[in-house]
Specification:
- The chain contains seven helices and no strands.
- With 134 residues, the chain is mainly α.
- The longest helix has 22 residues, at 23-44.
- The radius of gyration is 15 Å and the shape is globular.
Amino acid sequence: MSADAKPSPDVNQILDPSKALVPATVKLNEERVERGFLPKIRKAAAKIPFAADALSVWWCARDPTTPTAAKGMMMAALAYFVLPTDVIPDVLPALGLTDDAAVIAAVIAIVGKNLKPRHKDAAKAFLAKLSADE
């Protein structure tokens, strides 16, 4: 690692339940995701290898049957994905989305049991529609 390189994000800090589940933080994360998630996915889905996973998490977080604690963790991960300023800027080719992928993978590992086939199917259908529209 060069002296200028930034370390990988500490996903345990980003997804720390003591921070991610604070009501004010949950509300802020929900607002960020509401404003930025779909526009970012629509714009860059073809370049994001984990787009289906991120969309599955998004549909699960919006599902009324998903437990509140899981939703809070999912919204924290999705809010990190949406933020334009993160550990590794998204504009860097090949590296820019690695931190976002790590956060999405971590949230799936933590609360992935809440992801249902219907969430994954909705993600696949959304991506198929995006491809058809292009």
